[in-house]
Amino acid sequence: MNAATQPVKYAHMTTKRGRTRKKLITAARDLIYIKGIENISIQDVTEAAGLATGSFYNYFENKSAIIQAIIEDFDDLFATSLNQTRAKLNDPAMRLSVTLKYYFTQAQENEAWRSFIISAGLSDTHILVQSSKECREDISAGKKGGRFRSENISITQSLITGMATYVTLEMQRGNLAKSAINETIRHVLRMLGLPDIAAKAFAEAPLPDIAAPVREDLPTDENIPFRIAIDRRSVNRDTHLTSIPRPR
């Protein structure tokens, strides 16, 4: 993260600076959906946002910086959606299991995210994953409560994050089946000291209904392969939060 993107990220959207930054992020995201990153310029972004070209550099250094800001915006949306459910889960094992499964599932099924990283040329490098800080907090809470075992929380978190990153990328590349989600969660919980029967039960438990960012023109569809056709991304819609019911 660079200095141009970090300070304003948390600016309230009612401030002029916050609103202008959000306009640029939204305009860039929608143009990337429509044209792909290689076919848009900074001038295209500012024109779509209704701003002078020079204003872009008050917020971002270059196109890479605004792409990173869009990714962070997605991260915030997913985390905010999930936190409402996480707050209701008292069992650290259930909280971590639901969190891992949510990110695994959204990375494969969420069309707002998938179509963005494909159009931005990032599908082989960028993933959705729980933040390292939150993962450490979950491990620490589980250890304090006697639910988890870990001799070094930072190393344990690195192993979990690394495993989640690898499995998600391999699923995106078509090298692993969706069954890898439950198997990975099961192995993580076993690593944290849960008996296999409990780890398996948590891993196989269905996700509750959790909100997620969606694009109305690209609804979640399990039958659409990850590398969706470009004509599915031709409609310019905003990203917002909605509840996605899970199959019963």
Q: What Rg, in angstroms, do the CA atoms define?
A: 19 Å
Query: How do the SSEs run, as a string of H and E?
Result: HHHHHHHHHHEE
The proportion of strand residues reads under 5%
**Proportion of residues in helical segments:** 55-70%
- Structure classification: mainly alpha
Number of helices: 10
Number of strands: 2
- Approximate shape: elongated
> What do we call the CATH homologous superfamily of the domain at 72-244?
Tetracycline Repressor, domain 2
The overall average pLDDT, rounded, is 83
First-to-last CA distance: 40 Å
CATH level 1 class label of the domain at 72-244: Mainly Alpha
Please state the second-level CATH architecture of the domain at 72-244.
Answer: Orthogonal Bundle
Here the CATH topology of the domain at 72-244 equals Tetracycline Repressor, domain 2
